[in-house]
Amino acid sequence: EVQLLESGGDLVQSGGSLRLSCAASGFTFSDYAMRWVRQAPGKGLEWVSAVSSTGGSKYYADSVQGRFTISRDNSKNTLYLEMHSLSDEDTAMYYCAKGRDGYNVRDAYNMWGHGTMVTVVS
Amino acid sequence: DIQMTQSPSTLSASVGDRVSITCRASQTIVSYLAWYQQKPGKAPTLLIYKGSYLESGVPSRFSGSGSETEFTLTISNLRPDDFATYYCQQYHTYSLTFGGGTKVEIK
């Protein structure tokens, strides 16, 4: 069974940092591009970042460029999101997601984790 | 970035109705459009990809159509389990974008 399990969400002070993890199982992790999507309370979905299957190509939304870093460890089947200079606008549920077509970074997402909540307080 | 505009933002319907949701892109996305369903407190689930392809396991009462800049999600014979929020997403560019969502409510 394909599973994505996020962790690392927490309550953090404005200006602080946090690292999220997403543990994958049930598929060949190294064959798939992966991404993070967030959803602020009561709001819509916002794509945050994506990484190619090898980790060699990374993409970011303008809203997080320069503050967030996506990475992956294919030996551990784990995706990461390092977040710095957090503000209340980063308060959201953070989901990791797997695409349908493997290597393609530009893809529809056919598997999502349950999410991990990040709350930024001032 | 490509802007995705969904309409309506809220839709009231009854069980058995046929409903349609529209998604417009600010520039052509060819057919690189997906539709998702999200229920409160849950992660989204994929319904339709590449504009009109039904994801495995999704009931056939869901269908997608359109290309270039205008797309439609249609739910025929609305079931109680279908009352949820629906999002479109373009994946034509590396900076993917979602529509604002359409909440389908019980009339």
Task: Describe the secondary structure blueprint for this structure.
The complex is a heterodimer of chains A (122) and B (107).
Chain A: E1 3-7, E2 11-13, E3 18-25, E4 34-39, E5 45-51, E6 58-60, E7 68-73, E8 78-83, E9 92-99, E10 109-112, E11 116-121
Parallel strand pairs in A: 2-11
Antiparallel strand pairs in A: 1-3, 3-8, 4-5, 4-9, 5-6, 7-8, 9-10, 9-11
Chain B: E1 4-7, E2 10-13, E3 19-25, E4 33-38, E5 45-49, E6 53-54, E7 62-67, E8 70-75, E9 85-90, E10 97-98, E11 102-106
Parallel strand pairs in B: 2-11
Antiparallel strand pairs in B: 1-3, 3-8, 4-5, 4-9, 5-6, 7-8, 9-10, 9-11
In words, what does this structure look like?
The complex is a heterodimer of chains A (122) and B (107). By secondary structure, chain A is mostly beta strands. Chain A has strands spanning 3-7, 11-13, 18-25, 34-39, 45-51, 58-60, 68-73, 78-83, 92-99, 109-112, 116-121. Chain A is globular and about 40 Å long. With 107 residues, chain B is an all-beta fold. Chain B is 0% helix and 50% strand. Chain B is built from no helices and eleven strands. In chain B, strands 2, 4, 5, 6, 9, 10 and 11 form a seven-stranded mixed sheet that branches. Chain B has a four-stranded antiparallel sheet with strand order 1-3-8-7, with no helix packed on it. Chain B is globular and about 35 Å long. The model of chain B has no long low-confidence stretch (mean pLDDT 97). The interface between A and B is medium-sized, with 21 and 26 residues.
